[in-house]
Specification:
InterPro entries: Cyt_P450, Cyt_P450_CS, Cyt_P450_E_grp-I, Cyt_P450_sf, Cytochrome_P450_fung. By secondary structure, this protein is of the alpha+beta class. It is built from 21 helices and ten strands. Helix 7 packs antiparallel against helix 8, helix 8 runs antiparallel to helix 13 and helix 11 packs across helix 13. The chain binds protoporphyrin IX containing FE (HEM).
Length: 530
């Protein structure tokens, strides 16, 4: 009886199931057709799956290495699809220049970053702002105090910080921390009018914490970044907002607090300088705190990491250091430290610093841009909204442009001083602090090599002193990629070196106020000359 009764029901259920299956198959066929049709027009790349794209195909650790391998397979431009996002990878300098520089009117935005950009920083963070009025407002202010001419007015402060740095290595070999003190103190003094004498100050620890939070937040896969509509849910349904609020409050309070202190300090600083520019009126008070706060954080970490890479190169390549030392001594002699004027007469030094940048870029994955209009390149479709990655590592390892690319070879930049490198990024978003960054590299590298024989550090194993391991390829996997901690020894090159370093540091102008006043006077002259 039951069976008889259920027969029509079963038939009807089978019909429904059949219809659902047909509908599902048809939808799947349409989705697949549309996905593969879209995929075919993009630059080449792994085919991936409809809906997911290549979500499962990019390794989490050191992804720039996998990207470089993919360039070998697919060519200098390839694409991947991650859910709704299309990412185009550029693996040669020429292609990055063609798109990110020559077509910068549409390649200068940033990919949407819901968690970091919107939830944590509430749309205020300079580095990830979309291309538009707010970003231009930030850039105009930063451009006024970071132009090449203005950057050269900061040399006296760099000279003092650098003299402290080289003298510190007489007593300390914790070079990671010493470089961070140098970079933080330099940028903090310019931005807020106060030097950081030990590197242990609250203002240094604060920025370290913020950068640490940011690096972690950047590499975490937040569901709201994959599904941005979730951000419209009521707050109690958005658990990520609790973290975002804590981190956001912390950075806002920190940036406001350090800016408040700056107004009352005597002499020049960026916080005071921007208030003299009419462009500041277009921005809110919080935005002004971010313009300066973000410049401080951008300047502190990058220079530190690049000096760490220099130390790695020095330890691994004493033969190149010997050539550099010879050039420095030819220009300077052995009775005093090199000055900025000396560095201008040192072509091998300039080549050496460029090779440090190229050999191990500290932002190896590059800083992604986004394209704001549909475009076509080499016959490929570049869809509006795609993320465009000029991969610094991939470009640095391009064998055509840099033969034997893993080799540390400053001579390549000596042979061709115009040989480009990608370390500072591209186009309108290119690093605006590059002139200060470069001056820091030139003065510190020349002085460290003049003063010290930089060797591998030591470990004591079973009571015996053995050379510590230093890995050519041991780097942190993250947005920032400094070398993993390693040991180096800074041995004075001659008995008189300690006395010279201490004397030069003691004789340098120590008054931050006097230096900042001179910077202000020099800038006034430059501004009047305009
Ligand atoms: C060796 C040191 C440095 C390196 C390697 C470096 C690298 C970079 C890179 C790759 C970008 C992104 C470029 C792009 O999107 O294409 C950038 C942006 C930026 N850098 Fe640097 N930088 C350094 C030093 C500095 C210094 C000393 C400052 C400030 C004093 C600074 C301030 C900035 C700012 C404000 C941005 C944001 C630009 C924007 O997107 O609006 N940088 N930097």
């Amino acid at each position: 009886m039951d069976i008889l009764l259920n027969k029509p029901m079963l038939a009807s259920a089978a019909r429904v199931a059949g219809t659902l299956l047909a509908a599902f198959t048809l939808t799947a066929a349409i989705v697949s057709y549309r996905y593969y049709a879209f995929r075919r027009r993009l630059p080449p790349g792994p085919a991936g799956l409809p809906l997911l794209g290549n979500l499962l195909e990019m390794p989490k650790s050191h992804p720039w290495l996998a990207q470089t391998e993919m360039h070998a397979k697919y060519g200098p431009i390839f694409s991947m699809v991650f859910g709704q996002s299309t990412v185009i990878f550029l693996g040669t300098y020429d292609i990055a220049r063609e798109l990110l520089e020559k077509r910068s009117n549409i390649y200068s935005s940033r990919p949407r970053s819901v968690m970091v950009g919107e939830c944590i920083s509430d749309g205020n963070r300079s580095l990830i702002l979309p291309y538009g009025e707010q970003w231009r407002g930030y850039r105009r202010l930063q451009g006024a105090f970071l132009s090449p001419r203005m950057s050269n007015t900061y040399r006296e402060l760099q000279d003092l910080e650098s003299k402290q740095l080289v003298a510190e290595f007489l007593e300390h070999d914790d070079f990671f921390k010493r470089f961070h003190r140098y970079s933080s103190s330099l940028t903090f003094a310019l931005a807020y009018g106060k030097r950081m004498l030990t590197g242990l100050e609250h203002e240094v620890k604060g920025v370290e914490r913020i950068m640490d939070n940011l690096n972690k937040a950047f590499i975490t896969n937040w569901i709201v970044d994959s599904l941005p509509f979730l951000n419209h849910l009521p707050t109690f349904l958005k658990p990520w907002m609790k973290i975002a609020k804590e981190l956001g409050d912390e950075e806002r309070e920190f940036f406001n607090e350090i800016r408040n202190g700056a107004g009352a300090r005597p002499g020049y600083n960026w916080c005071k300088d921007i208030l003299t520019m009419k462009e500041h009126k277009a921005l809110t008070d919080t935005q002004l705190s971010y313009v300066i706060g973000n410049t401080y954080e951008a300047g502190a970490d990058t220079t530190t990491m690049t000096l760490q890479v220099f130390t790695l190169a020095a330890v691994l390549h004493p033969e190149k250091i010997a050539i550099l030392k010879e050039e420095i001594e030819r220009v300077v002699g052995r009775t005093r430290l090199p000055t900025f004027n000396d560095t201008e007469k040192m072509p091998y030094l300039a080549a050496f610093v460029k090779e440090v940048h190229r050999w191990r870029p500290v932002l190896p994955g590059g800083v992604p841009h986004a394209v704001t209009a549909d475009d076509e390149y080499m016959g490929y479709h570049i869809p509006k909204g795609a993320t465009i990655v000029g991969g610094h590592w991939a470009i640095s390892m391009d064998k055509e442009m840099y033969p034997d690319p893993d080799k540390f070879e400053p001579e390549r930049f000596l042979k061709d001083p115009d040989l480009p490198y990608s370390q500072f990024g591209f186009g309108r978003r290119k690093c605006i602090g590059q002139y200060i960054g470069n001056n820091s590299m030139l003065i510190n590298v020349s002085r460290l090599v003049w003063a010290y024989d930089i060797r591998r550090g030591w470990d004591v194993i079973d009571g015996k002193k053995v050379e510590a391991h230093v890995g050519r390829h041991d780097f942190v996997s993250g947005f920032n990629s400094p070398p993993l901690p390693f040991k180096a020894a800074f041995i004075p090159r001659a008995p008189e070196v300690p006395e010279i370093l201490r004397r030069e540091f003691a004789e340098a102008e120590q008054s931050t106020q006097a230096i900042l006043e001179r910077i202000e006077a020099a800038q006034q002259i430059l501004k009047q000359g305009n």
